[in-house]
Design a protein that fits this description.
The protein has 271 residues and is of the alpha/beta class. It has helices at 19-36, 67-78, 90-95, 112-125, 154-159, 202-226, 244-256, 265-269, and strands spanning 39-43, 56-60, 83-89, 104-107, 131-135, 166-175, 183-188, 192-193, 232-237. It is globular and about 70 Å long.
């Protein structure tokens, strides 16, 4: 994509992030997620690009409340040399002010003033190649099956004013396979690099991003339906097993049969 530059304004300075607090919160979030999900999986064909030297915008479908925690996990795994930022509802940030030290900045909903502040803050963040801006451009929780994908105008307005920024789609899906707890499925798509020649309009940018994200979601849904573990890399293994009483019986049965006990329900079914 080829677009023009918006200069950062001092009034839109990004929040001051505490790396120590981010690391502590990420450790807590990972434990929290592991207790409630069976696994976090990423498609082998949907890995993030390597050696990116440009400022980065990662835009995701907004599937559930868990999305920020999953993005934090990905940031700690794949983008450890960068600082992450994300917009959040201003009222929520006022209630949880420590989120500022995690990289969140407050935006009021549905106002021209909020849109201007978002663009200025985002532009300030994206002046550095060591920064990532995480966006949920659908603007609200949306079912992963909804088509066509509808994105808010903000991401297009941002792209139409920036140059040399990498925009990367990320699809997230939460689904049940064979375990009592759900799977978290992830896939990155093809990146788009902004440039200052032959610019696209803001609506055209939004359309390009919507199409790109929809394609990644469709591929993720197809692979999810296959349930083939060989197509995925397990980033984090969560809780397995059915319930304490049934698992105890399964453990005894495995011991009597001279087999190694595996708490995953699907492993036992395959024997």
């Amino acid at each position: 994509m080829k677009i023009a530059m918006l200069k950062a304004s001092p009034s839109g300075s990004p929040p001051l992030v505490s790396p120590r607090l981010v690391k502590m919160f990420a450790a807590y979030a990972n434990r929290y997620v592991r207790r409630r999900f069976h696994a976090i999986r990423i498609l082998k064909t949907g890995m993030p690009p390597r050696d990116v030297s440009l400022p980065l915008v990662i835009y995701i479908n907004h599937a559930a409340w868990w999305d920020p925690l999953i993005c934090l996990h990905l940031a700690q795994r794949y983008f450890t040399d960068r600082t992450s930022y994300a917009p959040i509802d201003a009222a929520a940030l006022q209630r949880y002010s420590f989120f500022k030290r995690l990289g969140f900045f407050g935006i009021e909903q549905k106002s021209m003033r909020a849109a201007t502040k978002f663009l200025r803050t985002a532009a300030a963040i994206l002046t550095s190649p060591r920064n990532i801006l995480w966006l949920t451009p659908q603007g609200c929780f949306t079912d992963v099956r909804e088509r066509p994908l509808r994105l808010e105008h903000g991401i297009g307005e941002l792209a139409a004013r920036l140059e040399n920024v990498l925009f990367l789609p990320l699809a997230i899906e939460y689904t049940f396979w064979t375990e009592p707890r759900p799977e978290i499925l992830l896939s990155f798509g093809e990146p788009t690099i902004s440039h200052n020649a032959a610019p696209l309009s803001a609506p055209d940018c939004t359309k390009v991003f919507g199409t790109a994200l929809e394609e990644v979601q469709d591929e993720l849904a197809t692979r999810s339906c296959r349930r083939d573990p060989n197509e995925w890399i397990v980033l984090e293994r969560g809780t397995s097993g059915v319930n304490p009483f049934y698992d105890t019986w399964r453990r005894v049965r495995a011991y009597v049969g001279g087999k190694k006990f595996a708490p995953d329900h699907h492993v036992e079914e395959l024997r």
